[in-house]
Amino acid sequence: MRHLHLLAVAALVLLPSTIDAQPAAPAAGKPAEIVPLTPAKTRLTWYGHAAFRIDTPAGKVILVDPWITNPSNPTGKDDLARLAAADLILVTHGHSDHVGDAVAIAKKTKARLVTTFDLGRSMVAELGFPKDQLGFDTQGNFGGDLTLLDGEVTIRFVPAVHSSTVSKDDTSVKDGGAPGGFVIAVTAGPVLYHTGDTDVFGDMAYVGKDFKVTHMLACIGGHFTMGPAGAAEAVRLVKPRHVVPMHYGTFPVLSGTVVQLRAAMRKKGAAAKILSLEIGKPAVL
Predict the structure, then answer these.
(1) Nearest 10 degrees: CA dihedral of 252, 230, 273, 214?
(2) pLDDT tens sequence across 132-159
(3) How far apart are alpha carbons 149 and 262 in whole angstroms?
């Protein structure tokens, strides 16, 4: 029995420790698998009004309606100065509160412009957007899809019920094409629907049928767009997982509130969760 006990102890000594064990060497010709400790996530930052920044898992930067220096953002000038890199600038329509700081950002970062074909031409001709930073790869129209950023992002142009002009000053008002919104689908990540400025309309339901929207960025301010009741109906039609209120509180006439949206959604049976973002604070999606 003593001999059997010694053999058992010897076997334990010869076995590698499970705590210190290393993965087996990869088979010949196969690279070792590298698993990140913390997988990258998509981040969403609201700058106030309708301006958003999307950071993709691959580190790309997408800006939507980048009026970063809007009155709701107390650090807008600093945020604009600190913005060192951007890959895409998406603009829903030509009004100055949505074009915002797009031209200055484009000249600084060389970001490419994603708009409808008509709006892109007007922004080049009237506002001086760099002509070589847009083309058929980033221009489209409603119903069209763009696959960009090495396939990480697919963007669909969707309609909106609004208007669109481009103005370099009060004496020059030019056609900005039809207003719209965007569905922004990140590969293996969130699907965001930025409504642009719009009223609720029945065909929003098709967005919900074509995409499993995880985050609907919806205007709620009223006066120029749908207010809380209209936004609640839009949420009911699209059926997103979350709704992110925007385009409210920037000016006194944009009087819709998140509290009113919550009450309207409850009344209409819209089941999405409200994600009320703090200006300048990124949210991990």
Answers:
(1) -110
(2) 999 999 999 999 999 999 999 999 999 9
(3) 36
